[in-house]
Write a structure and sequence with these properties.
Strand content: 15-25%
Order of helices and strands: HEEEHEEEHHHHEEEEHHH
Catalytic activity: kanamycin A + ATP = kanamycin 3'-phosphate + ADP + H(+)
Enzyme class: transferase
CATH architecture of the largest domain: Alpha-Beta Complex
InterPro entries: AGP_Transferase, Aminoglycoside_PTrfase, Kan/Strep_kinase, Kinase-like_dom_sf
EC number: 2.7.1.95
Number of domains: 2
Family: Belongs to the aminoglycoside phosphotransferase family.
CATH topology of the largest domain: Aminoglycoside 3'-phosphotransferase, Chain: A, domain 2
Length: about 260
């Protein structure tokens, strides 16, 4: 086996086939697994700070079960300085995978994402214990900037050439525009929902940043993603979300802050 496993998992995954997947935002190791029984699974594994991120995702995924369409949590384990998260492999494809395969499917992808987002944002905030507010995310961003771990070469076109400190200062200046409290995904990109061939969402993934925050936390990331496909795609998203116009300052705050993660 390519990674150590908790003792209780070893029999279940004995004889399984393993395929390495690209690393997620948290930097953890991700594997697509087919167990000896034919069961298809995904496993995330991390050590140190990455273990904390894997554990955070496991806790949030457990909370989401039965509330919205999501992958099924199979098992999770935390031991010493390591964490594991085992989930089912949903049969759908991510939004970006569908668009790459069938560009004409873009409207269905946008509709599916918008429908899911409306459901997620309608969840009772009093039931959610995870704080992802602007103040919490700004505090995390300050630590990343101070540690010098923000990749300034990965900034988007609007932030190209800026230092991480300058981007942080811009986000701090805009923070007062973040308002509203809903349950947010936290990284609502085209790669983090799975859809079937009818455009129905059958599962969300990568929920380690889920928590109570301004709804534009999710709107801004998806809006930015859809910019690759032109203004019409972005306008379609706004129509599906019943947003007659964008609050440009709220949008810019979340776009700016997201550059630091």
């Amino acid at each position: 086996m390519p990674i150590p496993l908790p003792p209780s998992w070893r029999e279940r995954l004995s004889g399984a086939t393993w395929e390495r997947e690209p690393e997620g935002e948290s930097g953890g190791l991700i594997y697509r697994i087919v167990a000896g029984t034919g069961e298809r699974l995904f496993l995330k594994y991390g050590e140190g700070a990455i273990a904390d991120a894997v554990a955070d995702e496991a806790i949030r995924l457990r909370w989401l079960q039965g509330r919205v369409a999501t992958v099924r949590l199979v098992s999770t384990a935390i031991e010493a300085d390591a964490a594991w998260l085992l989930t089912s492999a949903a049969p759908g494809k991510t939004g970006d995978a569908w668009i790459e395969e069938r560009p004409e499917f873009l409207p269905q992808v946008i509709s599916g994402f918008a429908t899911f987002l409306r459901t997620l944002h309608a969840l009772p905030v009093d039931d959610c214990a995870f704080d992802a507010s602007a103040s919490v995310r700004l505090s995390a961003a300050r630590k990343l900037v101070s540690a010098g771990v923000v990749d300034e070469t990965d900034f988007g076109d609007d932030f190209r050439g800026m230092s991480a400190a300058a981007v942080l200062a811009k986000a701090e200046a805009l923070a007062s525009h973040a308002s509203g409290r809903v349950v947010t995904h936290g990284d609502f990109s085209l790669g983090n929902l799975l859809l079937d061939s009818a455009g129905e969402v059958i599962g969300c993934i990568d929920v380690g940043r889920l928590g109570i925050a301004d709804p534009y936390q999710d709107v801004a990331i998806l809006w930015e993603n859809l910019g690759e496909f032109g203004d019409a795609a972005q306008r379609m998203l706004l129509a599906k979300l019943d947003l007659e116009s964008l609050d440009e300052n709220r949008l810019l705050f979340h776009r700016t802050l997201d550059e630091l993660f």
